[in-house]
Amino acid sequence: MDIGGYLGGISDIPCLGLKANELSDMLTVCEPKEVVELGVHTTLLSTAHTAMNVIYARGITEAGIVGLLTEPPFFSTWEQVMGKRKVVVQGVSYGAFISGLLPVGDDRGADEVQEIFLCYPKTPCS
Question: Which among 103, 85, 92, 78 is positioned nearest to 8, based on CA atoms?
């Protein structure tokens, strides 16, 4: 589970004196600096179609194309199964905040996720 999913399940973080959505929003605001300091990619690296194309929506508070915690090992495993250069990953960086998701959903995130469907007709065997 990424930090976004974890924070979505709790409402208070007593040791920090913050509500979960306050911490999430703070992490999301800090993300651009985190990306630079960690040297992670935040742009599309390839437009090629391969044996497996994955469109992945990363955790809300995670940096980079697909996040830093669980996602890179997940895709490395797929590459081991499918073979080198047979898996292309496109991350979806959406503008949702946990504070918007907790009550009923975040319109910004929902609008951006709809963009995924624009890619579907362009993929082989779609």
Answer: 103
